Request: fold
Amino acid sequence: MIAGPSQNVIRHKKVLPPQFGLTEEQYTELREQVYEKLFGPCDKVWHELVPVIPHIDVYVHPPGYDGRDFFTLVSGGMSDLEMHLDEHAMPFFRRGELLMYVREPRDDHVDLLRKLAHLVHDLETYFGDGHTLPVGAPLFPGSSLDTILFSF
Reply:
């Protein structure tokens, strides 16, 4: 059976970043400035090429900053939309971004961050401190990692 056009596509309304009197570009620039203060200069940005909302880029910050011997990958764009909180969630969890520490950034690391950043919006849920996401299979080739832990 072939699915109709709207059965497998989740459509989001056009939304703007948080309204702080900033344009979308200014909000992105502000986010990038915070990333640089926290993780050092950005080495590369993996831009999302598909025009979806929210638009998720992944920023790569190389080792060396603050004595770090690992790369820091950070999502950019997940916080453009509020997560869907339940009654147990702390209200400051409304908007967030994801980060991952890796020895060497790979496409599958970037893909995972991007998928997770979209997942909360696609499933109308949220990630909170201590939440786990059991995948049931290795997340990366040659790895036994099959569960994600979210920590704030």
User: Anything to note?
Assistant: The helical segments are 24-39, 107-122. Strands lie at 44-46, 57-61, 71-76, 99-102, 132-134, 147-149.
